[in-house]
Amino acid sequence: MNCTIWQMFLKNRTRIFLFISYLLFFFVTSGCRGGDPNLLEREDLFTLSIGKTESQLDIFQLDHVPFTQNIQLQMADGIFYISNGNSNKIMQFNSYGDILSLLYNPDNNPMPLQLSTDSGDNKIINKRAFTYPFLMLGNFCVTKGNMLLVEDEVLEERKTYDEELEAMLDRIVLRFNRQGELVDYLGQEGIGGTPFPYIERIQGNDSGEIVIIGRTMKSWVIYWFSPEGQLLYNVSIFYDKLPVPKGLNSVMPSLETIFADVDEKKLYLKIDYYIDLTQTTDFEGNKSIGFEKSRIYTFDVAKKRYINVRELPRYFRKESSFEIFNSEEQEALYEFIGSASGGYLFFLGPDIENENELLIIDSAGKVIMRKSVVIVDRELIYRTFHISSKGILSALLCEEESAKVVWWRCDKILEEDRNE
After folding, report:
1. Of 9, 212, 279, 336, whose CA is between 20 and 30 Å from 410?
2. Which residues are registered as beta bridge partners of 220?
3. Cα 395 vs. chain centroid, distance in angstroms?
4. Are the CB atoms for 212 and 186 separated by under 8 Å?
């Protein structure tokens, strides 16, 4: 009997080994994910269908063509605002996915069915639609006082080229009140000012101040306004004058992006440094470039100088979790995705097997959290993130047939850190 079992084992040892390997792989990579302490729980809030109606997301995507549409998300006090550049509209939803309001160009959208367009003063209406003839809706922001700031293009005759900035001036920032009425617009000097160059993002801080971050061919340009629209500071960060750490004169700095602080008049610059290996060439005779390290510089807007620097921890990853016994790792760069009150900064590592690493550091550069988040990149055609001042990370994940609004409650982690 025992001999027979042993013979059966020898005969089928290859299949048994493969079966055991499969079980090992399953439990290592997929089993018990809900209890994985390294995985930050994601909450799926609601889903938007693709289409043209007031509560749908209009995404037009051609095969083999890069996605270039401007779609953004912002969350404030549990209310979600989603801009849809393709339809020149901004939608407002509660956390259940019910549409609350719509600001839209009627030339690009059908008449809303779920929202009232009646502006009669004698009616109390909770869900309203407002119209504005946007030319090319871009970035947007909701301020502390619930004023909506929306980037738009100016008419052709108002566009000018600035020789000093080396940039086309063709963008303004419209300001709408809670009733959907246009109040005024901001330009470089303030209300009614000269159009801006290319706008990277619009931010509002907890004091109601407005920060417009633009880019030109030779610099980043930051315009800092009071809640009333008065220009307080104008700062230029030139590419050829980026800070270089002492003793590393041979490195080449590359400025990834800039975010404004939520509490104070400060900017955060993520700069990646590369080493020019002039003595090293590859087999084809090309010069080699090596990554040195990423750093976060804090820039005081009032004093116009750098006041702090933090080094980001290195990020290494395996190419695939299918290679269970492969210990080789490759270094990758974090993406700077925003800041929260208290000087907390958020970074996202590149995707691997549908997961990304989320890194949060404090004002001293200490790592507060380093966990995996599930985003499922391979099914997406577009994604965008937003971090609330309290530290809630929200995302709009767009697929071909629908789009999900999700969030990760990082604010609880930050609250625990503040109370320590």
Report:
1. 212
2. 215, 237
3. 8
4. yes
- By CB atoms closer than 10 A (0-12, 13-18, 19+), residue 129 is buried
Q: 24 vs 226, 354, 374, CA distance in Å?
A: 59, 20, 21
What are the domain boundaries of the chain? 138-241
Q: Which pair of structure tokens corresponds to residue 176?
A: 């709408």
CA distances from 14 to 8, 23, 216, 323, 352 (A): 11, 14, 62, 19, 30
By the 8 A CB rule, do 308 and 324 touch? no
Residue 332 CA, chain-centre distance (Å), reads 18
Rounded CA separation 380/106 (Å): 29
DSSP calls for 309-374: EEEPPPEEE-S-TT-TT----EEEPPEEEEEETTTEEEEEPPPBTTEEEEEEE-TTS-EEEEEEEE
Which tokens is 266 given?
Answer: 């400060």
d(CA 250, CA 153): 41
Distance CA 289, CA 189 (A): 41
In this predicted structure, what is the pLDDT of residue 248? 79
Rounded Cα–Cα distance for residues 224 and 420 (Å): 33
Other CB atoms within 10 Å distance of the CB of residue 110: 12
Counts of helices then strands in the chain (DSSP H, E): 3, 30
Tell me which DSSP letter residue 249 carries: T
Residues of the chain falling short of pLDDT 70 = 1-35, 61-68, 118-125, 278-288, 318-328, 353, 377-378
pTM to 2 decimal places:
0.85
Residues 6+ apart with CB under 8 A from 299: 235, 237, 266, 267, 268, 269, 305, 306, 307
Total Cβ atoms within 10 A of residue 291: 15
Question: What is d(CA 207, CA 230) in angstroms, rounded to the nearest whole number?
Answer: 14
- What percent of the chain lies above the pLDDT cut of 90? 67
